[in-house]
Write a structure and sequence with these properties.
This protein has 541 residues and is α/β, with parallel strands linked by helices. Helix content is 60%, strand content 10%. The chain has helices at 11-20, 35-45, 61-71, 86-94, 108-129, 132-151, 157-166, 186-189, 195-212, 241-263, 280-291, 294-297, 315-333, 339-351, 356-376, 387-394, 400-425, 431-443, 450-457, 461-472, 476-494, 499-505, 511-522, 526-536, and strands spanning 2-7, 27-32, 49-53, 76-81, 99-102, 176-183, 220-223, 228-234, 267-271, 302-303. Keywords: DNA-binding, Phosphoprotein, Transcription, Transcription regulation.
């Protein structure tokens, strides 16, 4: 674990620094606006890397570094300042700073280079101090880290070779097969995770994968980019293509089986050709291209070569889908959904190997058109199909089949809302009552009164109250309360919110009043209702 301390008395600059600093999951980052608090923390908890501003009141960056170095002689420091002052530069380097960065030149790349240099220096010190057994383990970890960096293009093959020689690590001479594994539905799995949850999740995944690799010659599991796992299989003395393929398939089968058994997760995998270490960055990019086939071919696939289909992003492809696409938009603008046109459009996408970006672009426009028409016609779409919620979920979909399924589900929701609207209009209700019901539906979460609705519609509130009671059989307050309780029940059943947060989301002014009204209307407390629904419909994990 690497402990990083950030210090800057300017809150905005500190926030920017935190956003730019991308660190591995095994890093702990603490930030402070007061140098003395940072110093107290380092004395109490220790630290490996200090990144500090230079010009601060009470204690400047030089003083902070000097005092911190007394506590932690092996502390590595990076100075960031808006002051291009030679004395500050000289003093900071005198105190052992690895880098001095001016704030106007600060970027994610510049900060990453300085951070990686600090980590490299840390490893250097640690290697010198360890006994032979621990030293060998440290070298192995360092080798894996540098292989990860060369695969992801963070260092060049030449830098990799230099670093390996510098630390006395033998450069692997055998051929390697790289497997780039995507966890299917990773964004949906981790959508509610915080940083700690993500770290625990990945620790568990990596531990499971490492166990599944036992028995395979020096096979390595390496963390890749977000939602990505890299498997590196050295072929040693094997030269037969058939044996290489057999060994690779055995690794894939074992890892996929273990992850499915332990986490109910599947992998889509791009597999490289056997190559030396210096060719791994190119093979990584090739594997990423292979994985693009998942969008059209579905999850859980193993891809070794690029699709033979010609995937184009040109004008000809767009014009081919233009007719059914425009027909579908026109139908929606008329207030109708046409599944036959939708099926025809998706068939064209699949048969012409449309890339994800183009399908998503057209489907987002279809959704925007549906939402616009729903608004114009006062259709009451269910909560899960409101614009921000559904759009966020739609953009996390990974395959074209998932997209088609979700659009069809949205069509069903749209058709249901349209039918309910038509039934409401045929009830014989006065137009003012219908308008009042629509106003409640759109504004129930806010403080609401009959006077406000009457003013909005430009009618007398007593007259509106009379019409509303004649049409619905309830007074305005009673109907609004029942509607809010109904919405509260929906939110409780979805189990995405705490009960003590729900009352405000549905328009009640206090939890105590909500509790009393809910219990009277439903016959049980909100918590009892949640427990009943949990037994009937257990939450899916």
């Amino acid at each position: 674990m690497i402990k990083v301390v950030l210090v800057d008395n300017d809150v905005l600059d500190l926030m920017q620094l935190k956003q730019l600093l991308k660190v591995p999951l095994d890093c702990v980052v603490k930030d402070f606006i007061y140098p003395r608090e940072a110093l107290e923390y380092m004395e109490r908890e220790g630290a490996d890397i200090l990144i500090t501003d230079m010009k601060m009141p009470h204690m400047d960056g030089i003083s902070l570094i000097k005092n911190a170095k007394k506590l932690l002689p092996l502390l590595h420091t990076i100075v960031i300042s808006s002051y291009k002052d030679f004395e500050y530069v000289k003093e900071s380097f005198k105190e052992g700073s690895l880098d001095y960065i001016l704030k106007h030149t600060l970027s994610e790349q510049v900060l990453k280079e300085a951070f990686d240099q600090a980590v490299s220096k840390m490893e250097e010190h640690r290697l010198k101090e360890k006994d032979p057994e621990v030293l060998n383990r440290s070298r192995q970890l360092l080798k894996v880290k540098m292989i990860q960096q060369v695969i992801l293009g963070e260092i060049t093959p030449e830098t990799f070779e230099r670093q390996m020689k510098k630390y006395g690590i033998e450069i692997p001479s055998s051929l390697f097969v790289l497997m780039v594994c995507e966890i299917d539905d990773y964004q949906n799995i981790t959508v509610s995770f915080n940083r700690a949850d993500t770290r625990i999740f990945w620790d568990s995944v990596m531990e499971t994968v490492e166990k599944s690799l036992e028995g395979f010659r020096n096979a390595e599991a390496i963390a890749g980019r977000d939602g990505e796992l890299l498997l590196l299989l050295p072929m040693g003395e094997i030269r037969s293509e058939a044996r290489m393929q057999s060994e690779t398939e055995a690794v894939i089968e074992r890892v996929k089986r273990m992850l499915f058994r332990m986490f109910n997760m599947n992998l889509s995998i791009g597999v490289s050709n056997p190559v030396p270490v210096r060719m791994l960055p190119l093979q990584y990019e090739s594997c990423r291209k292979y994985l693009n086939r998942k969008f059209l071919e579905g999850k859980g696939g193993v891809y070794r070569t690029e699709s033979t289909a010609k995937i184009s992003t040109g004008v000809k492809m767009v014009s081919g889908s233009e007719r059914p696409y425009r027909e579908l938009l026109q139908k929606i603008k008329e207030g109708n959904t046409d599944r036959e046109i939708l099926d025809r459009l998706f068939t064209y996408y699949k048969s012409n190997y449309y890339p994800r970006e183009m399908v998503e672009l057209q489907m987002v426009e279809v959704l925007q058109c549906l939402w616009a028409v729903a608004g114009e016609k006062n259709l009451e779409l269910e909560e899960d199909y409101q614009l921000p919620v559904f759009y966020d979920r739609f953009c996390r979909l990974e395959t074209i089949e998932d997209m088609q399924q979700q659009i069809n589900i949205f069509f069903t929701c749209f058709e249901k809302a349209k039918q309910e609207r038509e039934e409401k209009e045929h009830t014989g209700f006065n137009r003012y009552t219908i308008a009042c019901l629509d106003y409640i539906r759109k504004n129930y979460a806010n403080p609401l009164s009959l006077q406000e609705v009457a003013d909005y519609m430009g009618v007398n509130h007593t007259y509106l109250s009379k019409l509303f009671k004649e049409d619905t059989g309830e007074n305005f307050v009673g109907y609004l309360t029942d509607y809010r309780v109904g919405k509260a029940k929906e939110l409780i059943e979805r189990r995405q919110y705490k009960i003590k947060d729900i009352y405000a989301l549905v328009g009640f002014s206090s939890y105590n009043y909500f509790f009393k009204v809910f219990k009277k209307a439903v016959g049980c407390s909100p918590l009892e209702y949640e427990n009943k629904k949990s037994i009937v419909n257990p939450k899916k994990v």
